[in-house]
C-alpha cells in the first residue's frame, strides 16, 4: 500500500518538521500486519514529497487470526491487502504520524497551525461507491478531488471497472486535518475494517472528526461505515458529534436492531473477553490516541513512531430531517428565542466557531448588528465560506463583523452590543482562566444581557458507551448545582441577575442535556 503527501510551500522541506520524519532518512516502523516505511522520493525547496509504504504479509494475518474467525482457506493468503489502501494503512498512518495528526510541532508551531498547499495521492483505493462517493466525501472538506476508476483489465475494457480507484486530492489544508481526513475516510471508502470494532471506536471517531465531521453533509454515512454498520455505536457517535459546538446536527433515529457488519463477525471472535477488548485475531487494535505525551523533535525526523450505513448512494434521511429536534438545533432556537424576548437588537457570538448561530442571527432582520469572534482563524475562514461572505448582499454584510480574538483578553471590539452569547464555550476554558473570561465579558464588555450554555454532566449517563467528558477538548463539565453556584457568584460580583433554564429534554432524574444561564445587568450598575 502506498500513500504520498506533497507540498509546494517554500521551503517545502519543512514538511519533514511537520511529519517528524527527516527527508534524508529512510525510516521503518514495525506493524503487526507487516512493515511501514517512510521515505522522501523528492525533497527540494520548491516541492517535497513524503511517502508511506506499508508492506503487508497476508501469511502473518492468516496465522494471527483467532480460532473463532471464519476460514476462507486460500483467500486468507491470496487477497488485495498488500496492494490496496484500507484500514491497515489508516492504522499505520495513525501510528507513524501520530504527533502530526495531533497538530503538534515544537520546531514550527506556526506552520502546524496554518493551511498548506498539499497533494495526496493513493494509487489503489477500494471504493465501494465508485469515484462519485470519493468526491462526496472529500469535496466538502475543501479538497479538489480527482478519482478515476481502475479497469478490471485494460486489455478487456468490456469487462468494466473494478471496485478500486486512483485518488488524488489537492487543496490548501492544515496537515493535521488532512491526516485525520484520511484516517477516518480510508476505511469508510473501503467499507471494511480488519479488526473487531469495539465501543472505543466511537471515541476515536469523535477525536479524529473534531472540527469537520459534525458539519459534513455525509456524516451519517461516514459514521455508520466507520463503525461497521453497528447501529448502536453509530447512534452514540452521532449523539456525541451533536455536542461538538453549535454545528448543524441531525435528529437521531429511533432505535434500530443491531445488525452484523457484512465484513465482520456478529460477535467478538474467540479470545475477546468483552466489548472493550480487541482480539489478537486479524492484527492489531488501532492506536488512535491523539498524542503520546512525548516532546516534539526540534528537527525533522526523530526516528520514533509519532502519536497521536445506508447502502451506497442511499440518501441521509437523518440529515435531511435535521432541525430543532437535534440538541444543537434546540440550543440555537432557545438562544434565539431568548434574545428576541429580551428585545436585543445587537448580538455578539463569543466563540462563534463555524458560524451557525451567526447565520441564524443574520437571517432575522431584527438583529441590526451581529458580531462573531473566535480564537481559531480556521474556524472563521470556514464560517466566512459557509455564510457566503463574498456573495453576501451589501445590506446584510454591513450588519456583520467577524474577527479573531481570545476571551481572556480585553478587546474594545467586544463592547457596544445589547447581548453576548457564549454557547458551549466556557467548558473549553481551563478553570484557572475562567476568572479572566469573567472579567472580559462581564467586567469589560458589559452587555445588557449575557447568555451562557454549557453541558450538564449529570445527563452524560444517558449517552450509551460515553466514558469521561463529551468532548476531548472539554476542560470540565458541571452539574446543575455547580453551574448555578458559578452563575450566582458571577452575577453578584458584576451587578447582574441570572435566571437558569433547561435546554433539551428535562430528564426527571438527571436534568437536561444542556443548561442555560441568562444574565441581565442591573440598570443601576
What order do the helices and strands come in, and which of them pair?
Blueprint: E1 2-7, H1 15-19, E2 27-31, E3 34-43, E4 48-56, H2 58-64, H3 87-96, H4 98-101, H5 109-112, E5 116-126, H6 130-138, E6 144-151, E7 161-173, H7 175-190, H8 200-208, H9 219-226, H10 231-241, H11 317-320, H12 327-342, E8 346-350, H13 356-362, E9 369-374, H14 377-386, H15 394-397, E10 400-404, E11 419-423, H16 434-445, E12 449-455, H17 480-494, E13 496-503, E14 514-521
Parallel strand pairs: 8-9, 8-11, 9-10, 11-12
Antiparallel strand pairs: 1-4, 1-5, 2-3, 3-4, 5-7, 6-7, 12-14, 13-14
Enzyme class: transferase
Protein name: Small RNA 2'-O-methyltransferase
Biased composition (Pro residues): 257-268
Key words describing this protein structure:
525 residues, alpha/beta, seven-stranded antiparallel sheet, 17 helices, 20% strand, elongated, transferase
How would you explain this protein's 3D organization?
The protein is α/β, with parallel strands linked by helices and 525 residues long. Helix content is 29%, strand content 20%. The chain has 17 helices and 14 strands. The strands form two sheets. Strands 2-3-4-1-5-7-6 form a seven-stranded antiparallel sheet. The chain has a seven-stranded mixed sheet with strand order 10-9-8-11-12-14-13, sandwiched between helices. Helix 7 crosses helix 9, helix 8 packs parallel to helix 10 and helix 9 packs across helix 10. The longest helix has 16 residues.
Amino acid at each position: 500500500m502506498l500513500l504520498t503527501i506533497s507540498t509546494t510551500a517554500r521551503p517545502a522541506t519543512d514538511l519533514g518538521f511537520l511529519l517528524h520524519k527527516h527527508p534524508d532518512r529512510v525510516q521503518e516502523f514495525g506493524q503487526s500486519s507487516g512493515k511501514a516505511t517512510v521515505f522522501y522520493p523528492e525533497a527540494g525547496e520548491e516541492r517535497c514529497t513524503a511517502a508511506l509504504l506499508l508492506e503487508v504479509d497476508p501469511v502473518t494475518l492468516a496465522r494471527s487470526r483467532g480460532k473463532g474467525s471464519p476460514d476462507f482457506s486460500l483467500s486468507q493468503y491470496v487477497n488485495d491487502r498488500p496492494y490496496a489502501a484500507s484500514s491497515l494503512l489508516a492504522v499505520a498512518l495513525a501510528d507513524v504520524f501520530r504527533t502530526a495528526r495531533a497538530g503538534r510541532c515544537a520546531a514550527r508551531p506556526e506552520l502546524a497551525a496554518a493551511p498548506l498547499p498539499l497533494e495526496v495521492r493513493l494509487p489503489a483505493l477500494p471504493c465501494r461507491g465508485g469515484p462519485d462517493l470519493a468526491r462526496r466525501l472529500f469535496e466538502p472538506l475543501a479538497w479538489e478531488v480527482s478519482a478515476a476508476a481502475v479497469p478490471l483489465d485494460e486489455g478487456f475494457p468490456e469487462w468494466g471497472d473494478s471496485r478500486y480507484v486512483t485518488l488524488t486530492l489537492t487543496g490548501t489544508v492544515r496537515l493535521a486535518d488532512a491526516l485525520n481526513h484520511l484516517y477516518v475516510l480510508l476505511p469508510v471508502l473501503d467499507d471494511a475494517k480488519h479488526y473487531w470494532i469495539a465501543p472505543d471506536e466511537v471515541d476515536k471517531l469523535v477525536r479524529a472528526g473534531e472540527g469537520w465531521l459534525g458539519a459534513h453533509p455525509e456524516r451519517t454515512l461516514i459514521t455508520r461505515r466507520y463503525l461497521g454498520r453497528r447501529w448502536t455505536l453509530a447512534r452514540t457517535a452521532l449523539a456525541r458529534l451533536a455536542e461538538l459546538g453549535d454545528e448543524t446536527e441531525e435528529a437521531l433515529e429511533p432505535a434500530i436492531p443491531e445488525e452484523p457488519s457484512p465484513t465482520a463477525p456478529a460477535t467478538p471472535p474467540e479470545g475477546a473477553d468483552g466489548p472493550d477488548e480487541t482480539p489478537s485475531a486479524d492484527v492489531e487494535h488501532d492506536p488512535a490516541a491523539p498524542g503520546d505525551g512525548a516532546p516534539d523533535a526540534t528537527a525533522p525526523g526523530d526516528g520514533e513512531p509519532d502519536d497521536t450505513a445506508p447502502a451506497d448512494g442511499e440518501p441521509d434521511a437523518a440529515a435531511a430531517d435535521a432541525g430543532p429536534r437535534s440538541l444543537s438545533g434546540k440550543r440555537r432556537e432557545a438562544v434565539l428565542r431568548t434574545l428576541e424576548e429580551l428585545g436585543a437588537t445587537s448580538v455578539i457570538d463569543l466563540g462563534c466557531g463555524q458560524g451557525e448561530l451567526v447565520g441564524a442571527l443574520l437571517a432575522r432582520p431584527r438583529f441590526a448588528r451581529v458580531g462573531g469572534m473566535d480564537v481559531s482563524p480556521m474556524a472563521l475562514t470556514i464560517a466566512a465560506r459557509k455564510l457566503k461572505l463574498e456573495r453576501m448582499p451589501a445590506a446584510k454584510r454591513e450588519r456583520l463583523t467577524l474577527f479573531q480574538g481570545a476571551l481572556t483578553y480585553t478587546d474594545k471590539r467586544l463592547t457596544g452590543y445589547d447581548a453576548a452569547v457564549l454557547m458551549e464555550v466556557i467548558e473549553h476554558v481551563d478553570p484557572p482562566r475562567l476568572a479572566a473570561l469573567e472579567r472580559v465579558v462581564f467586567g469589560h464588555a458589559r452587555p445588557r444581557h449575557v447568555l451562557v450554555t454549557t453541558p450538564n454532566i449529570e445527563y452524560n449517563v444517558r449517552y450509551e458507551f460515553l466514558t469521561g467528558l463529551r468532548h476531548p477538548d472539554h476542560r470540565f463539565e458541571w452539574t446543575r448545582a455547580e453551574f448555578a453556584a458559578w452563575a450566582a457568584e458571577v452575577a453578584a460580583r458584576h451587578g447582574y441577575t441570572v435566571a437558569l433554564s433547561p435546554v433539551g429534554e428535562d430528564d426527571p432524574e438527571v436534568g437536561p442535556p444542556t443548561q442555560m444561564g441568562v444574565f441581565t445587568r442591573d440598570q443601576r450598575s
